[in-house]
Amino acid sequence: MDLSQFEAVLLDLDGTVYHEEHALPGAVELIRRLQERQQKYACLTNSTSSPQRISQRLKRMGVEVDPAHVYTAAAATADYVLEQFDRPRVFNHSTEGIEEMLSGRVTWVATESEPCDVVICGVPLNLYATPERQRTAMLLLRKGAALVAICADRVYPSPRGLEFGVGSMAAMLGYATSVQPIFCGKPEKLFFDELCRRLQVEPSRCVLIGDNLESDIVGAKSVGMRTILTMTGVTRREDTIALPLERRPDEIITDLRDLGDAHL
């Protein structure tokens, strides 16, 4: 697939560009070539971190990426909350990244007795999800606050193996309070719509390169993007066989080295 035919190239990060703290084969070179060609691009992730922190992480791997070219599920969550509520009153049950992005733009809620518009949900293992804060989140939701979750991931990989994801935490809170969570990360339409608005490009003029069939490939195809699946992450080639044609990736590659100069 010739990437130059698209107005924007979208790169998933974990499993496509890097694994933990190591860049995957061809990733740094591809990003540098996109920068040299001045082609629109964005790095995407369901991370609960901020674009600034992801940019610093990429820099440690040897590639400079402006935070403006990074869109995280946490950033999508911050955008959604600010768009849906006027000076929202927020209980942060998520991450430091959310705290950084929303400080000065929302009123933070600290106790169950305060009025609250939104509870923002992250993974169970974080500074803002202690057992006591879990209880506070539950009580605020039962009093009428909306439940906004950074993403719907059931689990996520860590250096020690799989951990409970945001989706698992949101499911617990939602079940306890009879509140339906609103998810903001991939593969949600609102994630891709907001990203395309930022890039000033139509989804049909984008190609997404990712390793996850559900959050990357199916999510992107549902809004009309072309897709490339890489085998450096969670998906195996045989996983694509059972998919209906309209949900399969347009191209499958071994790793980003397959997208050499001939593809640009």
Characterise the protein shown here:
This protein has helices at 27-36, 51-60, 73-84, 96-102, 131-142, 166-177, 189-199, 213-221, and strands at residues 8-12, 18-19, 22-23, 40-45, 70-72, 89-93, 107-108, 118-121, 146-149, 155-158, 161-164, 182-183, 206-210, 226-230, 251-253. The chain has a 6-stranded parallel beta sheet with strand order 5-4-1-13-14-15, sandwiched between helices. It has a 5-stranded parallel beta sheet with strand order 7-6-8-9-12. The chain folds into 2 domains: 3-46 and 186-263, Rossmann fold (3-Layer(aba) Sandwich); 76-183, Rossmann fold (3-Layer(aba) Sandwich). Helix 3 crosses helix 4. 47% of the residues are buried. The protein is globular, with a radius of gyration of 19 Å. The mean pLDDT is 94. With 264 residues, the protein is an alpha/beta fold.
